[in-house]
Design a protein that fits this description.
Strand order of the largest sheet: 3-2-1-4-5-6
Shape: globular
Oligomer: single chain
CATH superfamily of the largest domain: NAD(P)-binding Rossmann-like Domain
Structural class: alpha/beta
CATH topology of the largest domain: Rossmann fold
Largest sheet: 6 strands, parallel
CATH architecture of the largest domain: 3-Layer(aba) Sandwich
Order of helices and strands: EHEHEHEHEHEEHEHEHHHHH
Strand content: 5-15%
CATH class of the largest domain: Alpha Beta
Length: about 300
């Protein structure tokens, strides 16, 4: 087995999450190369992290790597950067391990893993939770699926940005756990939106009320981080509605296949469709409150 200290890492995808995650890998001392579809973004990252290497394609970035980390938009993008023209798999040696932090379907994860396995390359599906703040502060939760030996080989790298890391089963288990995560969040955000709107309509001191109840059974990450911004009508940050709709689509598809019922999740997905129709495709998911009647911020 390769000594963890000898790991050579490639990070593919420097978006909102990947940018700080790759930065933590760079700070951990492993030789690192990066690639991003938009070159200007990669140049910006290199300016912040001199000493790392830029690849002009996924294959160029992955050349010589023993661990490849991906964080891109969807299953098609994961397939492209790994198995497409100039994909990373074309240059990886048998025994390398790919860790995908994208949120994709469990079916796509298993298909990509099978294609890599034919080349002797390991695959761990490892979606994350914690948002941009969790990535910046190295406090992400990582839900993983894959072979235990592959996970053991990469865990020391994941530790640079993941405060909680757990292997939950075979390939696909990480994506299924992320679906559970998103189902929980969908219901909580809708409930919080209704609570904030109710507090405003009944002329309560929103800040005082939510600081008080946040210390009790109603407390949650969403309440602590989004109740105040919801009340102020601020949505230009955080996890975009279009991404949440993609994730909830995976949840609903998987539920149909498994015979599970997700009535609240389906309803919240419809509410997000209304937000998109109102121009909120890139708004934070807390923008669910925009559907609800409430006084305008500032009493206008």
């Amino acid at each position: 087995m390769t000594d963890p200290g000898e790991a050579r890492v490639a990070f593919l995808g420097l978006g909102v999450m990947g940018f700080p995650m790759a930065g933590h890998v760079a700070g951990s001392g492993h030789p690192l190369s990066v690639w991003n579809r938009t070159p200007a973004r990669a140049d910006q990252w290199l300016d912040a992290h001199p000493g790392s290497r830029l690849g002009l394609s996924p294959a160029q970035a992955a050349a010589g790597a023993t661990i490849v980390l991906t964080c891109v938009s969807d299953g098609a993008a994961v397939h492209d950067v790994l198995l497409g023209n100039d994909g990373a798999a074309s240059v990886l040696e048998p025994g390398a391990v790919v860790v995908d932090h994208s949120t994709i379907s469990a079916h796509d994860a298993r298909e990509i893993a099978a294609a890599l396995r034919e080349r002797g390359i390991g695959f761990v599906d490892a979606p994350v939770s914690g948002g941009e703040a969790g990535a910046v502060n190295a406090r992400l939760t990582i839900m993983a699926g894959g072979d235990a030996s592959d996970f053991a080989r990469v865990d020391h790298v994941l530790a640079s940005y993941g405060a909680t890391r757990r292997l939950l089963g075979d390939v696909g288990a990480g994506q299924l756990a992320k679906m559970v995560n998103q189902i929980c969040i969908a219901g909580v955000v809708q409930g919080l939106a209704e609570a904030v709107a109710f507090a405003q309509c009944t002329e309560q001191d929103v800040e005082a009320v939510f600081e008080t109840i946040g210390a009790g059974a109603a407390g949650s990450w969403q309440l602590s981080n989004r109740s105040a911004t919801m009340a102020r009508g601020e949505f230009e940050f955080g996890f975009a509605v279009e991404h949440m709709r993609k994730d909830l689509g995976f949840c609903l598809d998987e539920a149909r296949s498994a015979g599970a019922a997700l009535p609240v999740t389906a309803l919240v997905d419809q509410f997000y469709a209304e937000v998109v129709a109102d121009g909120g495709r890139r708004w934070d998911t807390s923008s669910l409150i925009t559907r609800l009647p409430r006084p305008m911020p500032g009493g206008a």
